[in-house]
Design goal:
The structure holds 2 protein chains of 2 kinds.
Chain A: H1 2-13, H2 15-33, H3 51-54, H4 61-68, H5 71-103, H6 107-118, H7 125-136, H8 142-149, H9 164-189, H10 193-201, H11 206-217, H12 219-231, H13 238-245, H14 252-255, H15 258-267, H16 272-300
Chain B: H1 2-38, H2 42-48, H3 60-67, H4 70-102, H5 109-121, H6 126-136, H7 143-147, H8 154-167, H9 170-178, H10 183-194, H11 196-212, H12 215-220, H13 229-250, H14 254-257, H15 260-296
Helix pairs in contact in B: 1-15, 3-15, 4-8, 4-11, 8-11, 11-15, 13-15
Classes of the chains: A mainly alpha, B mainly alpha.
Chain lengths: 307, 297
């Protein structure tokens, strides 16, 4: 009773602020909450005439198929595997480059190299696919031109699955290094000069200063970025994978992630039930992962908890 | 001891310069290859492949594009319209939301924050969302479908909330209220002005996402005159690929008349051009905003 009065009292007192929030609430309600009803598709064999509740109910058949065909296992391994590599390599390189840049004195060089490394972040993934094609296509790609001029037989990269995990990782780093580097660089700039001065007086050399001052001071930034990344470890980099690999079935074994599978099931195979099931699996599994990660973090150090 | 340190410093700095230079080159290299490709004659690309300096200089790719510029211009128009409307609307909503959610005297701020944040934890997935938009809202082939889904993200709202929190002192709200300013007036005459760096950063995030988007076109747009720029590029690339594959497969020399490779490169460059030109100005705000956000947590 008291609580109810409390709400309407609040609503009346802060009606302007409620009104300011209204569009946002409606946006998320429609864009994010409404579609949750459609999870039901995962348990149907969808037909377009029937729509949401008119399609035949098939229980867990879609999930069973995903599991038995081996797709579920492969997609999960690929999605998580790539993300783990991205997180580790991405952060280590970003930290290393940020430290190197922070130690360089030449102002113009510093600015210029930062700008260049940040540039790929602004490019679209469609452009990325064009650039990859220039480098690696069989007939005219730069890579094969170099091989030819060295007298080595050209390689058909787009037919060679095993190189793609490396290439995708390289392109991921290429696109995102500048962004994470700038975040780390900002954290380094925030470290007080006094520490370095004191270390210098004590005779610490440059490696010791980096290892004992800069690296430990970057830990909070690293942990925050790491936890955010862990929270979305089931979410694949759809744009990156789809633009680089596209519908090249030869490479799917090593490059197919849940997001590309769902997109193809929807746009190419029109398999609504299966696509929804794969998406739901991703969502649920991801949810359980975040909750567990957050629970563990809360036990270790409350300050770093995501929520 | 001292000498040893100085020697190490020198060695470290030299290798730092070298490594940074190497990484910068690696970042720049694909662009140089593309620019050179767009200025090379198509035959030369097919015969000699891509090189850093054109072997046979030619502008045929650009000529090809500008002989039939209608579709390209249309795609430019669509993208500019969507980017401007989406960014302005999105900024308005995001700043308002960020402002209300950080007002300490707004009792339900945590509940609303969680309502927004929860959408990053769990969702219905792509397919139910797709069916909702196409079947129940009938938004295929509309500008609305290119604009609405990108208006807000939880990440940008949280970012904005933190910006406002760090830029506007708590007491300012109190004194403004005592002076008789309403909640909306506080927002547009105080909060917006004080959090300009944050607004710029969030605005750039939004604009970049709209400009680079191809996904919404690929899902919802069938009418080619409504393609976004990046999706138009994507389609051109695929068409050209198809044409040249057909030429090698059937021996039909269609590809000779259409300079597939150089057109692709020229198109990629024309589509990317505006970002590269704006980049020097835009980059500064981006770095500044990210820096504030990162330091203040």
């Amino acid at each position: 009773m008291l609580k109810k009065r409390g709400f309407f009292y609040e609503l009346n007192k802060n009606k302007v602020m409620f009104l300011m929030l209204l569009p946002t609430v409606i946006f998320f309600l429609i864009n994010s909450y409404f579609p949750m009803v459609g999870i039901y598709y995962a348990f149907t064999s969808y037909d377009f005439a029937g729509g949401l509740f008119g399609s035949p109910f098939v229980g867990l058949d879609n999930f069973k198929f995903l599991y038995q065909s081996g797709a579920l296992w492969k997609l999960t391994i690929n999605t998580i595997g790539y993300n783990v590599v991205f997180i580790i390599l991405g952060n280590v390189l970003a930290i290393a480059i940020a430290i190197l840049i922070s130690e360089i004195r030449g102002k113009l060089f510093k600015k210029f190299s930062q700008s260049i490394m940040f540039l790929p972040y602004f490019m679209s993934f469609v452009l990325l696919s064009v650039l990859a094609y220039n480098m690696f296509n069989f007939e005219s790609g730069f890579f094969n031109q170099v091989l030819k001029s060295l007298g080595i037989a050209p390689v058909d990269i787009y037919n060679t699955p095993w190189v793609w995990p490396i290439l995708i990782t390289v392109f991921y780093i290429w696109k995102n290094l500048g962004y994470s580097m700038i975040i780390y660089l900002a954290a380094i700039m925030g470290i007080s000069d006094e520490y370095y001065e004191a270390a210098k007086i004590d005779g610490a050399n440059i490696m010791q200063r980096i290892w004992h001052i800069t690296v430990p001071m970057l830990k909070p930034t690293f942990v925050i970025l790491l936890l955010f990344a862990l929270g979305s470890i089931m979410k694949g980099q759809f744009d990156l994978f789809y633009q680089l690999v596209g519908n090249n079935g030869l490479l799917f074994d090593v490059t197919d992630i849940i997001d590309t599978y769902v997109y193809r099931s929807l746009k190419v195979n029109f398999d609504i039930g299966m696509a929804t099931a794969a998406g739901l699996y991703q969502s649920l599994f991801g949810f359980v992962l975040i909750m567990s990660v957050n629970y563990i973090i809360k036990k270790i150090n409350e300050d770093y908890a995501l929520f | 001891m001292k000498d040893n340190n100085a020697g190490m410093s020198l060695l470290f700095k030299t290798s730092a310069y070298l490594i940074i230079m190497l990484f910068s080159l690696a970042c720049l290299f694909p662009f140089l290859l593309m620019i050179s490709g767009s200025l090379t004659s198509n035959e030369s690309i097919i015969r000699d492949g891509f090189h850093l300096i054109p072997k046979v200089f030619s502008l045929e790719g650009y000529k090809m594009i500008f002989t039939f510029p209608d579709q390209l211009l249309k795609a430019y128009g669509v993208t500019i319209f969507v980017t401007v409307v989406g960014t302005v609307t999105g900024l308005f909503l995001i700043t308002m939301t960020g402002y209300v959610l950080q007002r300490k005297d707004f009792k339900y701020r945590n509940k609303f924050s969680f309502f927004i944040y929860f959408t990053t934890l769990f969702g219905g997935g792509l397919v139910p969302w797709y069916i909702m938009i196409t079947k129940y809202f009938n938004l295929s082939d509309t500008y609305a479908v290119l604009i609405l889904p990108g208006l807000m993200t939880p990440f940008l709202i949280i970012l904005m909330k933190n910006f406002i929190k760090s830029a506007v002192p708590e007491e300012l709200f109190e004194s403004a209220k005592i002076d008789g300013a309403g909640d909306f007036k506080i927002y547009y005459s105080i909060v917006l002005k004080l959090s300009m760096p944050g607004v710029a950063t969030v605005g750039l995030f939004l604009a970049l996402t709209y400009w680079n988007d191809w996904f919404l076109s690929s899902l919802f747009i069938n009418d080619t005159s409504m393609y976004q720029l990046q999706y138009y590029l994507y389609n051109t690339v695929n068409t050209m690929l198809f044409l040249s594959q057909m030429a090698t497969g059937t021996g039909v020399t269609l590809a000779k008349e259409i300079p597939t490779e150089s057109t692709k490169m020229a198109m990629a460059l024309v589509v990317t051009g505006p970002i590269v030109f704006l980049y020097p100005f835009v980059q500064r705000y981006f770095v500044k905003g990210l820096t504030i956000g990162a330091v203040k947590g």
